[in-house]
Specification:
The complex is a heterodimer of chains A (358) and B (443).
Chain A: H1 2-32, H2 37-47, H3 51-68, H4 70-79, H5 81-100, H6 107-137, E1 144-145, E2 148-149, H7 177-201, H8 207-231, H9 241-245, H10 251-262, H11 273-294, E3 297-299, E4 309-310, H12 318-345
Antiparallel strand pairs in A: 1-2, 3-4
Helix pairs in contact in A: 1-2, 1-3, 1-6, 1-7, 1-11, 3-4, 5-6, 6-7, 7-8, 7-11, 10-11
Chain B: H1 2-20, H2 23-43, H3 46-79, H4 82-116, H5 118-152, E1 157-159, E2 165-167, H6 172-175, H7 179-207, H8 212-248, H9 250-257, E3 269-276, E4 281-288, H10 291-297, H11 319-348, H12 356-364, H13 368-384, E5 387-389, E6 393-394, H14 405-436
Helix pairs in contact in B: 1-3, 1-14, 2-3, 2-5, 2-7, 3-4, 3-14, 4-5, 5-7, 7-8, 7-12, 7-13, 8-9, 8-11, 9-11, 11-13
The chains are: A mainly alpha (358), B mainly alpha (443).
């Protein structure tokens, strides 16, 4: 039962990253590449009717985490208190930037909210990458100081950084050079993803330019991914152990690299959705490979006093998890129906949807 | 430790108070928009469709505010109340996860279609999307109040080793006797807010001599919805909620009514008076004998236990706060019924649109349903203190053990600043939409 909910949760998080990922990416493109009003409109039209529904995947994932793995929810949310609060503020800024921009026709007003939207999208992409880095690196569970736990074994707290920025320090911080690397990968990957969405959903003038951007950024992304694989052993001495023990798990890295290398053909795709498909594969494969590498751990311990959090020692009780399957199955069918309806109505190009015009 | 808990409580109280300013309008307003749209489908009179479209703009703005201030609510269970989440997540996680899966997806998927899809969908399907948004928002309220009810009156659980609450009866979460009265009370109160807002904007137009047609329509609709919902808030829903409190949380009931001593031969109802916590009595009180016993038990002489009979350790933490919250809510609720009755009488005599003083009163009444809703929730929440889960888990045992007061105060200040900005932007934009008014299709 724990495993079922683990797969549900990871799937929902992957869907969230793919969906809200293109929102963040579109925000970054909006910040750096959309100069003309017409291009900006095209971008906000392409995400306007979706962003709210996309963010629901985050809330719903949070709900499932809370319900199925309450100890993990309690431990990680209180331990990652500061970055989570900042993510909340950024989500708020991003949403109001997007929603309020079109409410007043004034150059200064528009440029303020454009920047709010773009910069918070960029920082969110960075933070989500850093967050993933923190999970795989692990944390000092129980806040061990000099070999003694100062908290219950599954609680911890991390400041934003420690003075050394090292992922191997005893007292860790949220931001160190390893988690920052994953943050940068997050930014580059989501920028590509967002560009692909814009190419897919608009007839904007910048689409040709964006294809070049995708191609060039993909070279950077390949480089960053290779670096990260080479230094991964610093945070996990046996990063490939799970893949050797359970060879079928290799499917996830294969999906990841299919997406990554497929993106190099961006200029020759006939259908506009293919690029988006490949960047989705990369995000899905990258995320699943990362969590598969630490499976069944969900939050490793960096000290040898308190045990890792695994999906088995953080889960709710059996009855609750079983009864949840019934309502979840019904809800999953309904959500699928909603999504089909939503994407059918807003299928094709979105240039004329008139988002944010009042 | 003490101030850690204080900032955790302040932050939750502040963010939830601000957040609930928006859903209380959108839940009620979604029903009224569906009404306008339905009226248009039946009569084909354009004015109803224009009215629906105008209120959709207000709705969209409020909905966006509700969403962005709602995400922090779900996060804060884990960030600030980690111990509570760890111990009870197996139970309240059920209803909170269901809220995400059943109502947020429904609302958000169809809100986009509702706001941007009128031309694509045609009027009938557009009505359906509006109805689904309404359904989603009311389902959300239901699941939140199911969670709330479990905290007020825990059911279907057992407590295992290390104090964890484990669910053993899923159905009990929904047959909880606390749930239905609270839900109906809350939804009726939400409809009070939206009715008063609609009537106030209508009165504003009439008094300003602009958008005359819409002014009349809004005043009329607001008054009719307002009278029905104000009555429903008091009876039967408010009455049933109060009966739950007296039955399951008798100390809370005594504190909110301001009854310190058990009275022989029936309790009085307190209208005015300040709780004097030093001497455990009310100062300069004005009260009507026996009414409270009658309202509670339909028996003039029924005994109601005074607060002084309960051990101090189970007294609500903030008795004066609880007492004032409750009395402000009840006082305002009574005024709402009175004003809406008068307005309805004038409406039937076909004089309402010319009765200036009622229009002025309707307009200035706009903030008060928000105050009544907020103090109503304060009554429920302060009434539960010092418990997170009534009688089982104290608030002091629920906060995050590792988050220091310095960090909580930092984020509390951040929220205050950010929400101040949000509030100003909201007022500015809402003012702009209202000032511009509904725009008839043929212009």
């Amino acid at each position: 039962m724990e495993l079922f909910w683990y797969i549900v949760l990871m799937t929902m998080l992957a869907v969230y990253v793919i969906l809200d990922g293109y929102d963040f990416g579109a925000g970054i493109i909006h910040l750096f590449f959309a100069k003309k009003e017409k291009d900006k409109k095209a971008i906000t039209n392409a995400i306007g009717p979706f962003w709210d529904a996309n963010e629901v995947w985050l809330i719903a994932s949070g709900g499932v985490l809370f319900f199925a793995f309450p100890t993990l929810y309690a431990s990680s949310f209180s331990g990652f208190y500061l970055p989570l609060m900042m993510i909340l503020w950024l989500l708020i800024f991003r949403a109001i930037g997007l929603e309020l921009r079109g409410q007043v026709h004034n150059k200064m007003w528009e440029s303020i909210w454009d920047k709010a939207f773009g910069i918070s999208s960029l920082l969110l992409a960075l933070f989500f990458g850093v967050a993933l880095g923190n999970v795989v690196r692990g944390v000092n569970l129980g806040n061990v100081v000099n070999g003694v736990s100062t908290q219950e074994a599954h609680f911890f707290f991390l400041p934003l950084w420690n003075p050394t920025f090292s992922p191997q320090a005893e007292q860790l911080g949220i931001i160190d050079w390893f988690t920052l690397l994953l943050g940068v990968i997050g930014v580059v990957a989501l920028t590509i993803h967002g560009a692909n969405w814009i190419i897919f959903k608009t007839n904007s003038d910048i689409n040709e330019k964006l294809k070049k951007v995708v191609f060039n950024l993909n070279i950077v992304l390949v480089g960053l991914v290779i670096i990260s694989i080479f230094i991964w052993h610093i945070i996990d001495p046996e990063p490939f152990k799970n893949f050797i023990d359970k060879p079928w798990l290799i499917i996830f890295p294969i999906i990841c690299f299919t997406g990554l290398f497929g993106l190099f053909k961006v200029k020759s795709f006939k259908k506009h959705g293919i690029g988006f498909l490949f960047s989705s594969l990369f995000l899905f494969g990258g995320l699943t490979s990362t969590v598969a590498s630490i499976f069944p751990k969900v939050l490793p311990s960096t000290n040898n006093i308190n045990p890792d959090l695994t999906l088995y020692n953080v889960a709710a009780d059996e009855y609750g998890l079983s009864v949840g399957v019934y309502w979840f199955a019904i809800a999953a069918v309904l959500v699928t129906v909603y999504m089909i309806i939503q994407y059918k109505v807003f299928k094709g190009k979105m240039d004329d949807v008139g988002y944010g015009e009042h | 430790m003490e101030d850690m808990l204080f900032y955790d409580r302040m932050q939750f109280a502040f963010t939830i108070t601000f957040h609930y300013l928006f859903p209380q309008l959108t839940m009620g307003l979604s029903l009224m928009i569906v009404y306008f749209k339905w009226k248009f489908l039946r009569t084909e009179i354009e004015k109803y469709n224009d009215a629906a479209k105008f209120w959709m703009k207000i709705f969209a703005l409020n909905f966006a505010m509700g969403v962005v201030t709602g995400i922090p609510m779900e996060f804060q269970f884990g960030t600030n109340w980690a111990k509570f989440s760890e111990l009870t997540g197996g139970i309240i996680g059920q209803t909170l996860a269901m809220e995400g899966m059943f109502s947020f997806f429904l609302e958000s998927s169809f809100l986009g279609l509702f706001l941007f899809g009128e031309k694509l969908l045609g009027h009938k399907l557009h009505f359906v999307t509006g109805f689904l948004v309404f359904l989603g928002s009311w389902a959300s309220g239901y699941l939140i109040i199911a969670t709330h009810s479990w905290m007020q009156y825990p059911v279907g659980y057992e407590i295992i080793e290390n104090g964890k609450f484990v669910l053993n009866n899923f159905g009990a979460l929904f047959s909880n006797p606390w749930l239905l009265p609270s839900y109906l009370h809350n939804q009726a109160a939400s409809l009070v807010t939206s009715s008063f807002v609609v009537a106030a904007i209508g009165a504003f137009y009439l008094l300003n001599n602009k958008h005359h047609e819409f002014g009349k329509l809004f005043v009329k609709t607001g008054v009719v919805f307002g009278l029905i919902s104000s009555l429903l808030v008091a009876f039967p829903t408010g009455d049933l909620v109060a009966k739950n409190v007296v039955k399951y949380q008798p100390a809370t009931f005594a504190a909110m009514e301001g009854i310190f001593e058990t009275e022989e031969g029936g309790s009085e109802i307190v209208l005015i008076g300040q709780p004097n916590m030093l001497e455990k009595k009310l100062d300069n009180k004005i009260a009507v004998p026996n009414i409270l016993s009658f309202l509670t038990y339909q028996d003039w002489e029924a005994e109601i236990k005074g607060l002084n009979e309960f051990d101090e350790s189970v007294h609500p933490t903030n008795v004066p706060g609880l007492y004032y919250s409750y009395h402000i809510m009840v006082g305002l609720g009574t005024i709402f019924i009175g004003l809406m009755l008068l307005a309805t009488v004038q409406l039937f005599r076909r004089k309402l649109y010319k009765t200036k003083w009622i229009l002025w009163a309707l307009m200035f009444m706009l903030p008060f349903p928000y105050i009544a809703n907020t103090t109503g929730w304060y009554t429920a929440e302060l009434g539960r203190q010092p418990w997170l889960v009534y009688n089982l888990l104290r608030t002091s045992a629920g906060a995050s053990p590792t988050v220091s007061s310095g960090n909580t105060l930092f984020t509390l200040l951040g929220f205050i600043g950010l929400y101040l900005l949000l509030g100003m932007l909201f007022l500015m934009l809402a003012g702009k939409i209202i000032n511009k008014g509904p725009e008839p299709e043929t212009h």
